[in-house]
Amino acid sequence: MELDFVKLHGLGNDFVFMDDFSRDINLTKEQVALLCDRHFGIGADGVILVRPSERSECAAYMHYINSDGTLAQMCGNGVRCFAKYLVDRGYVQASDGQFVADTLAGPKPISFEVDDRDKMTRATVDMGHPILEPSDVPVNVPANATSADGAAFAKDVAITSPWGTFAFTCASMGNPHAICFIDDFAQLSDELFTNANDKSLATLDLNKIGAYYESHEAFPEKTNVEFAHVRSGAIDMRVFERGCGETLACGTGACATNVAAALTGRSGRENDIVLRGGTLHILWDENDHVMMTGPAVESFQGTVEV
Ligand SMILES: N[C@@H](CCC[C@H](N)C(=O)O)C(=O)O
């Protein structure tokens, strides 16, 4: 079968988009893995099928599939690219400046900016409220803290690994995240770094430690794993994503990290989250909504045989 595709990315977190308004694309896990393969396929972190929405207020439905073929409820970088796909192809009027995207995690209102050719450049997505109750994240640990709004959550919960014990704060943005803040990388085992003479977030061996925690028994639906370092005015973050491994950026991960930093008293509620692929601006507002702002870029389009 030949399928048309468009490749888009948000800060290097990249996706193969396909028009599935007729709902007749049914990809197997193997086909998704091949499309996402960087040597034998197009190369991407996930596939996004653009489908009709059953909600009258929504322009379309984003069906997100990780590169290993598993479904995820939400994708922050993907939903900005979804907005660009819809605006640039005229499914959403550029002059409207806003619309609502439908996702497995519910409707997400989006406002966007366009350039002088009416192509979308940046978007702010209302990602909704974070889910903090541990059983809803889900994470199999009891809540050990309460937010200023009275929400119980798992704060800096110690979970052991073969390389030492790490403290995770857990939150869901529709999909699960476990965030570990590290102040001093020099204290960690040499085995966790690709260069033990330069221990930093940049040299942390995420393929080792991220993969371990992604599938840890504490996380019944697996988890996205973030390692973060708070500095003045910004938070540096790297992510090992459930179902695709390390990516250059993760929108939901940036939102969850911002929430976790605020919840644990490490920062305020508004931060630049600095990822390998660039920076997202995240605000956890007074109405308990997390607002994510960042770019979306189209790379190329083509036809592929699956
Ligand atoms: N890259 C995404 C998240 C994609 C889904 C994730 N891997 C999961 O399985 O939950 C983002 O930008 O949020």
UniProtKB/TrEMBL annotation:
Homodimer. Its EC number is 5.1.1.7. Substrate binds at residues 13, 66, 76-77, 175, 224, 241-242, 251-252. Its main location: cytoplasm. Pfam families: DAP_epimerase (PF01678). Belongs to the diaminopimelate epimerase family. GO terms for biological process: lysine biosynthetic process via diaminopimelate. GO terms for cellular component: cytosol. This is Diaminopimelate epimerase.
